[in-house]
Amino acid sequence: MTQLIVDSLTCEYRKNPLGIDVKKPRISWKVKSNLRGTMQKAYQIQVASNESFTDILWDTKIVASDDSIHIEYEGPDVKPRTRYYYRVKIWDNYDRESPWSKVAWWESGLIYTSEWKANWITPSPEEIDPHSEPAFLLRKKFALRKGIVSARLYGTGVGLYESFLNGARVGDDLFNPGWTSYHKRLQYQTYDVTEQLVEGQNALGIVLADGWYKGTLSFENKRHVYGDKRSAIFQLYVKYQDGTEELITTDPTWKASTGPILYSEIYNGEIYDARLEIEDWCLPSLEEQNWKHTVKVNLPVENLVAQENWPTRVTEVIKPVDTFVTPNGETVIDMGQNMVGRIRFKVNAPKGTRICLKHGEVLDKEGNIYFGNLGKAEQKVEYITKGVAGEEYAPHFTYHGFRYVRVEGYPGQENGLPLDNFVGEVIHSDMEPTGEFECSQPLINQLQKNIVWGQRGNFLDLPTDCPQRNERLGWTGDAQVFIETAVFNYHCGPFFTKWLRDLKADQLEDGNVPIVIPAVVAGVGSAAWGDAATIVPWTLYQTYGDKRLLSEQYESMKAWVEFIRRQGKSEYLWNSGFHFGDWLALDAKENSFVGATPKDFIATVFYAYSTRIVRDTAKILGNFADVQEYSLLLDKIIEHFNQEFVTPSGRLVSPTQTAHVIALMFDVVKGEAKDRTAFELNELIIQNDYHLTTGFVGTPYLCLALSKGGYHETAVKLLMQESYPSWLYAIKKGATTIWEHWDSIKEDGSFWSDQMNSFNHYAYGSIGNWLYKNVAGIDMDNAAPAYKRIRIEPKFAGIELTFAKASYDTMYGKILSSWTLTDAEVKIDLEIPPNTTAEVILPYATISDVFESENLLINATDISSYFEKEDGVHLTIGSGVYCFKYRNKHGLKQTFSEETRVIDLLNQKETHEVIERYAPGISKPPAIFALKTEKLRDLPKHPESNLTNGMVKELIEDLNKINW
User: Fold this and answer.
1) Which of 500, 543, 892, 905 suits 33 as a labelling partner, its CA being 20 to 30 A distant?
2) What is the pTM of this model?
3) Boundaries of each Alpha-L-rhamnosidase six-hairpin glycosidase domain copy (predicted)?
4) Which domains, and CATH codes, for the chain?
5) Residue 407, CA atoms < 13 Å, CB-side half-sphere
């Protein structure tokens, strides 16, 4: 039985990180306990130079604190290339002392620029054309003595590299070193290669391809954006039993060649000629007489930083579900899922057989594979066989967004492809999954799957807009609208930490923020895009309690707000410059991508939001002068917004859904104007027959604003909408990811414009945030970040939703919220992690009705407090597993009309509940009421029955008119 255990130790978000450059690493842990209401009261951390802790470098002793995340190391300065072991124990509020945790460790990287001893190298340009398309092979043979105890390989390259030792791949990560603002920040990787080395002769090899550094980039088809020469820098440290150390580095003694990779581009694909493979190219036995020389390259080492992001890997292997021949006569494989990654295949074929794969996302209405949305991206790989049994191939330095694959040249394909010889390898940043959501509606469950697949496909080292066409850029707008959903699904701490540092690096001197990060295309300064500079770090702080990152980004955040402040004729309105507006909104004018909501309206609302974030950040960081300044600025922005965009009677000047949504979400309307805005948003949805018209700016907050404004039932009905435009329309059309357009495939099977029609574009997947927070009810008290104080408030609405369940693994541990509605009962199951507390609202419950684990609430133990309000019973609970049950006396499992709710109550013969709802305090119903209710029971009990609905309306009116 679990007692009190310290578990899940991490350093800088990672378990046992290898090669980090953080000089004061932060330690976090989770607590496991068999007692409810467990709170940590004290902790002790020890850091040592050895696993036995006989040489302790830092001992906190007993610290009276409930802090268990981001505890900063304060021991002696961290040395380069050194492993540090740490362990933790805690004391809790039950006077228990835990045993020491299992020992964890972190290992420092090179840390200091002075530690780089190697040279950047590239093939001699006199022998190998530096602009040639084939990937370069670099190799070095070296000898090692007996008694190897450890070895570390540190290295990076421009563009992409793979490294090999003694014929075997080093590591399993892909697309190294990742994509950063290369001139300012370039990641290097660290590998433990102890087991790959041998006494005597060894060989180290590197493969170099163009990648993002010098390959084709963006819809502008730029090349050589960062440089025009591939090169690499590596150093291998080998330690021996006698305490000595040997260093092997890249230098001009290395040899170079080209090999079987004739061409490899991220957008266009790869050509691989297996006949050109150099057998044993990375073994020490290779004769090097035909290899070329290398030369030094004048590149800096000052911009080298240790790997910050999760590594990119193959995270899943899926099998194709079908193969068929299209009406055009093309042989196609169906993976059953729109995915991002590559195909790996096996083949037996004569030498020189050319096999070609071309990747697409959907089929057209005739059933042919569709490539029109790829732009100038080829998404094509070619493999030329070497003629041996069981050849196997997957591309190295390219990836594709696809569900369907056209296959040409595979032996015998006219008789059908052998599907067992093909698999899809799913590739993305290897983030830890943290959240799950499911409910009683299968289409919503598919929507959640589509959201997750969209995130996986577009979180490949940076948050891209799409994975298939010649774009795949880190669009700031897409990232900020999706981040709150993203952090529910996966642990995004390292992912966005790395990306934010690039945003800060590429931010202009005047504070303007490029529209994509890294900044490789023109365009800056758009509202809701540049606001990623404030929204993303603030969201990471709320989610993970990362105060250090917030502090690191603070000047960037301020610079963005100050940039806005200098725009236009008034420092309190943003009414100038270029803006995307409500991108791809359905209320746009003909042949326009921009919705009807005025751009200066959107810009000023986001100006207010970013200013509020900067003010709140200043509070967290203790910068009280800035708190005062940005509080005053925020008040002025809101004042001027209301003068400019709100009539004296409280009506918004823009009658669009998006205008109402963002005004509500970002609190720029107050009092009666706020109530009116919420009411009119609800009316706009109803008048549009429960369909949305919002684009990239409004959609992320649409259902949140409705629920916040008191119209949760409308939000649910909007979510449930299956006809165009809606989230479920795409699913009914077979979508397995989120589309860029609400009608990427139209009702008749035709497509939206080829110009911009991604079938894997996660922005509209931002509805996932609302599913977790409002449907399942998992939220936090923003004053206690990282879910230290949890808020659980599930919201019920709609006959389709009778069950919802979500779990989320926070920095403190797992939160679970699950609810089930039956005609008779409401059941809510909760799990709260140790060292946290939770405020829980049981909707529409009364204290006398609530049971917890078979005990009446008034008799339940381990409930800190409870009281009853109009919206239900409010509880304060500590950690543990809870099961709450109470009578479903308010017809929570009903549809959206009062009439149908009454019908259901009468069906259950709950006449007294109808009286209580519409005539509270009456002891005996009048005769006319009894007659009408009896008559109603003889009619069809369906909301579609006009006769029934009419009589119910009359009954409600009678009750309201009678003077009791």
Assistant:
1) 543
2) 0.92
3) 434-775
4) 4-108 (2.60.40.10), 116-306 (2.60.120.260), 312-429 (2.60.120.260), 435-772 (1.50.10.10), 777-887 (2.60.420.10), 903-961 (no CATH)
5) 27
